[in-house]
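Reopening: Sensor-like histidine kinase SenX3 still failing for me.
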Amino acid sequence: MRARLVVAFLLVAALSALTTAALTFREARNAILKRTQDTAVQTLRSRVNAQLPDVPFPPDQTALATFTHDLDQAGEPQRWITYARYESQPPVPGAIPDGQVSRELQEKVRKGVSAFQRIDVRGEPWLVIGLPVTFGDNGSERSGLEVYARMPLRGEEANVQALVLAAQRGALPAFAIAIVPALLAARGVLRPVRELRRATQKITEGELDTRLKVTGGDELAELSRTFNGMAAALEENIAELRRMEANARRFAADVSHELRTPLAAMTAVTDVLDEDAGDLDPDTGHAVRLITEETGKLARMVEDLMEVSRFDAGAAALHLDEVDIREAVGKTLQARAWEGRVTADLPEGVRARIDPRRIDVVVANLVGNALRHGGPPVRITARTEPREDGEWLLIEISDGGGGIDPEVLPHVFDRFYKADAARARSEGSGLGLAITMENVRLHDGTVRAANRPGGGAVFTVELPLRRGGRQA
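Support: Ran it again with your exact input. Result attached.
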């Protein structure tokens, strides 16, 4: 932007200088030529009047030759060449060269009007003057004698060229000097813009108390005031949102914590009742089993809420260990009796530094999600992949179901998101995939969901093999 402002300023300066120089040149040129023309006409008229008494009337060719010769001698400083003609006789000292005295000028002279014109002869400028010789007190009687003179304008042209050269020499320093105010003007314009950019960058980095110093009353000052107002409103809104978010997280954590104790007691009681449900009448037994099931769901939801609260509070910690991936995944499937329902293709000898408990939760949530909402066959595979930043472990869990609705796909890791709003209840808490994503992030990895070309959904977990993850 600085370069554009400087160039624009210099262009305006150059255009102004060129315009001024052009106007000055035109006026000076016209003034020089007009002065030359007026002087030449007056001098020629004076010389003609001085020589005229010696010319007999009507003059013959010899008298006209003497007359023009004397005029040439008298006009030596002007370097003119004169011709004379009396009425319809041939001009003296000879024929006027073609194209040097126009018919229009000769017609004016015959009518008793003095005239002049500028012509170009072989690239050089010349001045042609035509004078009718008149008699009488007011010069109203034409004598029939016509005098023509042509004189070079080389000196005047040289003066004009000197003006052009002087204008050029003066324009270059002026153009160079114009760079200084151009830089100063660009600096004055760009300084508020740079400050605005720095302030915007600080706002982006979270320094919401950033403000601009406002000076003056121009458009840039008004922009600074607008920015300060926006920053103040943004700081206030962000503070309110953070307060509300903190309150919501604290509420969820407090509620979950307070529910754990009564839920533990309820679970113990329902477990006892569930053991005797077979001895009760059918309706009472069904009610007991329903209470036991719902109490278990509530307990799992509370545990998930507690886990999410720890993530939000930054209190989730990694306990890393060097483990065999094939063995760790196998234990997850075995602990939940999924060996017969899930096909595993896991390489041998792949070890990674991970938190076994959290990876167990990741695999269990993804496999459980595939079993509940997908369709057979459910398959889990693992492989390593070299990349520029090191070697990575990729774990894929796929199913043969109908896949995930494209509109739902971007939201599958959102908390409490339901693909079907009409499905009010499900076995899960709605937090399983969100907890999965948080656990993977703790390992500096990523997890993504997609649909396979052949049908079904696939979840891919990517973990760095040799990194330690974030210690929360």
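The first strand starts at residue 81 and ends at 86. If you still see a failure, please send the error message rather than a screenshot.
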